[in-house]
Amino acid sequence: MELAAGSILYLDGVSVSFDGFKALNDLSFTVAPGEMRAIIGPNGAGKTTMMDVVTGKTRPDTGDVLFKGDCDLTRLDEAQIAQLGIGRKFQKPSVYEKLTVTENISLALSGDRSVYASLFWRISPAQQIRVEHILEIIRLTPQRDMIAARLSHGQKQWLEIGMLLAQDPKLLLVDEPVAGMTDAETAATAELLKSIAGEHSVVVVEHDMAFVRELDVKVTVLHEGSVLSEGSLDHVSADQRVIEVYLGR
Amino acid sequence: MITWRLLSSARGVAITTLVILVATVLVPALHLLTPSNSALHIPAHVMALFGKYLCFAMLALSIDLIWGFCGILSLGHGAFFALGGYGMGMYLMRQIGTRGVYGNAELPDFMVFLNWNELPWYWYGFDQFWFAALMVLLVPGLLAFLFGLLAFRSRVSGVYLSIITQALTFALMLAFFRNDMGFGGNNGLTDFKDILGFNLQSGSTRAALFAVSCLALAASLLTCLFITRSRLGTVMTAIRDAESRTRFLGYRVEAFKLFAFTLSACIAGLAGALYVPQVGIINPSEFAPANSIEAVIWAAIGGRGTLFGPIIGAIVVNFGKSWFTSVLPDIWLFALGGLFLAVTLFLPQGLAGLFKMRARKPVVPPIPAAQPEAAE
Ligand SMILES: Nc1ncnc2c1ncn2[C@@H]1O[C@H](COP(=O)(O)OP(=O)(O)OP(=O)(O)O)[C@@H](O)[C@H]1O
Ligand SMILES: [Mg+2]
Question: Average pLDDT in the B295-309 region?
Fold first, then answer.
């Protein structure tokens, strides 16, 4: 538990099995406040399942999942965890297709999420400015009144990142943010995520090695539900076991 | 696009409200102020018939609030309608007093007939109008709240939820059929005499009931409009389209569903309460599962998710039903089925869609900025 103190996210001995198949197997790792961490690993390594466990979608069979060192996430549901300040971008872009770009973002804006507060909610001038700002960051200002269904795949990815920004979480879990993006967009996304880190902690799952290299942060390699290797990208790339299961294929 | 959608929906609601408010004044006036041989005269039975349609319209509206905006398909909303109806029926029974067949000031006839000696506790207070008025909202609301609490917290949704709402209304129907429940068994409650001291058969009382039904419908419609246009409404839509996603944004989905479901049940209860004095009877057949399904069909034909569509749907379908059952009674079910099919195939947005198509033209759809490099 000493390790947990001072961390933003702490996983220890987490196991999850689906019908006997161990998607996570005694998984342990720690993310420090303000840190950005890249998670890589072959298909089915358990990366998305790890995010499901942290965000309350899946309950672990065993193990501890602590936020900020003392908050036990395994006892909370999705909404409570989100309200604590953990935001998530899904592997498959999950925006509200029938709402406009602006509506998607303002729905995510941080604030009181009770039924009563929602009934009388009016966007404040400060929030208005924030929405404008986010629209600019994600380069969707011209599409602000377009329904999300009409955006391209890459634009939906960005919109979802914009929703994450609007939520203003302390910890961001970002699952494959650059899937379906061009090289230029990928580079821009790396820039964006790097600018977020520091103030926020970010965990990024990604297959795209060029992108991970661009991020230039500590990398955790998952394999069959547990950590195979950890360190700089150069360090893990040189690790013989990693080469065997992942990079060498 | 969505702004256009909201605008046209709001316009539809505005026009519908206006029509209802005109009817509030005009129909009672034409009934009371014109001689019965005049071409403009509206006879009492026609006014009562349309008063009934207004109550059905409220029921359809309450279904649209949860189904069209929050994705909760209740196939048991007739239960809340009937409970509201029974609440009002109990008040009207107590008003009969010594004018019943047995002349018992305390007990309704059916209780005397069953050799009961005293009023069951749950009939206490129903001799007071204010109490009954409170109960027609509270009882359906409370039942919906408890039901929703259990169902939404254990994340029952979709078809499973629809099925248990059917089971709910079916169970209530069986219960209310029993004589020992104390609600008049299969005869239900009837032979009402007066309401608040006014004779239910008199033209002015009927006119007043019609006007009150209009006002209640308009008020419910505007309440629903306010809710659906607030952020709460956006959250409801978000839940409808991507329930799980909405949880990860930090919204307690079950709380939002519970609010919508409970409010919807209160509107249905109020509709039932206004229905009973106008038709003069409430019996357990109002709980029949088929009634609830029919009400969903009204909403679907009118256009779900538009608020005003289901009102039009309820009135059009029920008007058609009255007409067919008097002229071609055998054809009615085929006509309803045919209408439902036609609307589903050709008017995906229901009758309200006709209205929107005309409202669409002046608004220029936003042109997407070309983003060729963003292709996958
Ligand atoms: N709900 C579930 N039920 C059964 N099996 C599941 C479930 N969710 C995940 N799995 C299995 O668990 C394993 C890990 O899945 P997970 O989605 O976490 O992998 P991943 O590392 O995100 O892979 P990818 O790179 O393909 O996204 C997979 O074999 C998957 O089939
Ligand atoms: Mg995955």
Answer: 95
